[in-house]
Amino acid sequence: MRECCLPFFVMTEHRPEDQPPDPDQDKSYQNRLYPEDQARVDEFLQKGVNSVERKPFRPGLMIIMLIVVVTGFSLLSQLIARWSGIY
Fold this sequence. Notes:
Layout: H1 35-45, H2 59-84
């Protein structure tokens, strides 16, 4: 029997979940801004629109609302067409 049906995948480095990433090896932990620039960014994020905590975005609710609104407008247009004698 051929082994052509085996799944093909690429193994990545496995790190146990209880072990945090090493900041010396992970470039995302290095700050790329000068301290005064980072202070300006932090100040900007604390005021205005960025300071308000919001609920997480729920695309499922938006899709349901969209379906309800489109269906409502469709039914309304059907009623108007029948009332005016077009349909």
